[in-house]
Specification:
about 375 residues; alpha+beta; 8-stranded mixed β-sheet; 12 strands; about 40% helix
């Protein structure tokens, strides 16, 4: 049953509209967005779809095809905390942020369904937040720009879900362009769409979902963010993006906390990797991107320490089978990896990863091509 038909079955009338917003995978630039740095993600064809209608009575009714059960009913003016409330905290948080900003959002009925894998590091939460924000912006005539919608979605996750994420995921879901990577400066939201067509270069970009489900609200992500902020304070800069890779040795020598130093080394070197990858893409040398992906994984594994055995195995198995490079993507502690490989090696690389997982006794991973897709839109 499609979302509009299910909406009508749930709420007794057809929705006023249907919107969708994509998940994302990040090619390079991890844990840089909350450090006001640079990222290079793409939107996936996997989307969260929402059928939505306005209400004028202050009631917010939420239903998910993926969760099932009865619709959850909330009041838009209820001051009770949303964190710990499960999936409904994301759309309800968006409503709260809009109302806190003075927008007269007087209630809504929502029914959502998603093809973005949850817990796979592919930003299912951002897709849900952005599709809610876009639908409410359209229905209530709020006139918000795409970056403004992304900021609303980010604040919903920060303030009402309790995850101190940066803005990369929401900006990608809101602003991506089909066939392109989004080169984003997370300080001022300056963005450039970078053409990205691996097939034309005889290559393939694969996403490997390890099936290890991560949760960013468990404190580990927040601890990394706090460590990065401590590093910036110790170095006397607004954010770690203000430390260049050339200044890194001297900066590290000033840091007394070894953990903070590791975090700083990752962020500064990762910003530099984003710059180098962007330059290679501009020069049309996509094959040379591969080693930088693997270099980034080593930094995430050893300096930031957000990898896990399954993600490390993806990288070893893929590169051992001839892939050009691979790395974990997303917040880590599970989730997914990206693999850049020759198109003629894609099946063999995927097979090698599956075989390595089987030999290790892990669940079979999901493997699919990363197709650069468009951002949020009304259907």
């Amino acid at each position: 049953m499609n979302v509009a038909a299910r909406f009508e079955e749930l709420y007794g009338a057809a929705p006023e509209g249907v919107w969708e917003a994509p998940g994302r995978v990040n090619l390079i630039g991890e844990y840089t967005d909350f450090n006001e740095g640079f990222v290079l993600p793409l939107a996936l064809p996997h989307t969260t779809v929402a059928a939505v209608s306005r209400r004028t009575d202050g009631l917010l009714r939420l239903h998910s095809a993926d969760i099932g059960g009865e619709a959850v009913e909330l009041r838009v003016d209820d001051p009770a905390p949303l964190s710990g409330g499960g999936w409904t905290a994301y759309p309800a948080g968006v409503v709260r942020v809009l109302r806190e900003a003075g927008h007269a959002v007087t209630g809504a009925d929502l029914h959502v369904a998603s093809t973005v894998p949850t817990g796979a590091g592919l930003s299912s939460s951002a897709a849900l937040e952005v599709v809610t924000a876009l639908a409410l912006d359209d229905l209530f005539g709020l006139g918000l720009s795409r970056p403004e919608l992304a900021r609303v979605a980010q604040r919903a996750e920060n303030d009402h879900v309790g995850v101190p994420c940066g803005v990369m995921d929401q900006m990608t879901s809101a602003c991506a362009v089909e066939g392109h990577l989004l080169h984003l400066d997370t300080r001022d939201l300056g963005r450039r769409q970078v053409p990205f067509d691996p097939a034309a270069a005889g290559l393939a970009l694969l996403v490997v979902d390890t099936r290890v489900r991560h949760r960013l609200g468990d404190g580990a992500y927040a601890e990394r963010r706090a460590g990065c902020e401590a590093g910036a304070r110790a170095l006397g800069v607004r954010a770690l993006r203000d430390v260049t890779v050339g200044e890194l040795p001297a900066a590290l020598a000033r840091l007394e906390d070894a953990t903070v130093a590791r975090y700083v080394r990752h962020v500064v070197s990762e910003n530099d990797r984003v710059d180098r990858v962007a330059a290679l893409l501009d020069a049309g040398d996509l094959r040379a991107v591969g080693p930088l992906l693997t270099e980034g994984h080593v930094s995430l594994r050893d300096d930031l320490r957000v990898s896990c055995p399954e993600l490390d195995l993806v990288v070893r198995a893929a590169t051992g089978a001839g892939a050009l490079g691979a790395r974990m993507t997303g917040g880590g502690f599970g989730g997914s990896a990206v693999v850049l490989t020759g198109a003629d090696r894609a099946d063999a690389v995927a097979g090698a990863v599956r075989a390595a997982f089987a030999a290790a006794g892990y669940a079979e991973p999901g493997v699919f091509p990363a197709v650069p897709s468009g951002g949020a839109r009304r259907r």
